[in-house]
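Folded chain entry —
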Amino acid sequence: MEFLFDVGFQRFKPNVPTEFTFVVNAEGPFGPAPQLTFDIDLNALRETWIGQTTIGKVVEQLEKGNRNLSELTSAVRQLNPEVAESRRADRKTAIAELEAAE
């Protein structure tokens, strides 16, 4: 499998540049805009959390958030089962109406 993008600061291809210059030339509604030049140095990201985060870590965080949300949902259902059941019934009715409209 070939990845088209780097992950964080991990470079998939060694010896590729990490400093870039972008020159922006634009035409605005009142004529040409002044030329803008941006110098980007990706070395600044080397010591940030971005350099430490992988897709696996993002998945772990999403799974943790999902567990926390499930726990919160369970707690709400226990505290007020009538409201939870009413919301569940409202969702079932909305789904049935959408399916009938198809």
